[in-house]
Amino acid sequence: MKKYFTLVLIASLLTSCSSSKSDDGSGNSSIPVEQIYFPPIDGSNTWETKSITDIGWNQSAVQPLLDYLNVKHSKGFIILVNGKIVMENYFNGHDAVTNWYWASAGKTLTSTVTGITVQEGLLNLDEKVSTYIGTGWTNEPLAKENLITNRNLLSMTSGIDDYVNGVYSDDVTPSSLNYKADAGTRWAYSNVYVKLQDVIANATNLTFPNYFNAKLRDKIGMNGIWFTSGNNIVYTSTTRSMARFGLLMLNKGKWNSDIILNENYFNTATNTSQNINLSYGYLWWLNGKVSYHLPQTQNTFNGSIIPTAPSDMFMALGKNDQKIYVVPSKKMVVIRMGDAADNTNLALSDFDQTLWTKINALYQ
Questions:
Q1: I want to staple 266 with a disulfide (CB 3.0 to 4.6 A). Which of 24, 165, 253, 350 is the partner?
Q2: What are the pLDDT digits (tens) for 53-89?
Q3: CA–CA distance, 37 with 346 (Å, rounded to integer)
Q4: How far is CA 322 from CA 303, 335, 348, in A?
């Protein structure tokens, strides 16, 4: 009988150890299953950490990753696993308290605030944009302008021409917003999404920054401000603040038990939003789809955007390689801020693929 109880105890312990790991579908069981940690929002800058060895990752892969980030003009880099900091590194004169711009990665902030406005009953995604900001906000015939809904702005399917006089344009003054196709029939990466900020301001009777601060920034302990740069409205913050937003999205819009963004909108925003560019949600890029489009082109490319990265990853991507990668299967958020990795202005490049090859080496 004593031998029987000993065997039962051993079996129980083995089962417990096995259940403390998760399988990401690739046979890798290195990510611990535990409750997601959220850093306090009291401004203390406290954030729990875990070491590479604590989670069973490969310490020898750390330095090659850091060397690559450094030579590729990075400024801030963070990896969170289950909300805890596993890597946090700064380069090229940057530090933890210095703000840096998000560029188009900040589109996802506008997407999130749009969802918050919807859940408060102040905004209807299927209502035409002109209901909120008036007619004449484009240079289109009125009948065509009135086809454009808030959902079209979120999914980049407004039908507005992304070129003016043959040159790619980010100008959102009415004279530059010309008809190209009926809303919903053409996907084109365009700065016209920023009109959602005007929609939100009119729907809430607050300035967009004030509404953003009250409903999102301050609720998750971010710092940062919006500023105007040319035709763009750009967000700037610390690398940790970008990581806080990534952590919110890893937890499907909840900060601890506080619902910032409801899960229904989150799920829609981080899945394919239309049938033209399968790798695009509501201002989020999606990995692992069968095809994708890139900015400034109407070509369809087969395969996943970043083949070396996890297929369930969704991404906020900005000019000069500002990155938020969210990987639900690994309970992981990866942040990269800095200058252009390869002296180009593209949000996606070979840099992403090589970076993920080096990140993969940490846990494979």
A1: 253
A2: 999 999 999 999 999 999 999 999 999 999 999 999 9
A3: 33
A4: 23, 8, 10
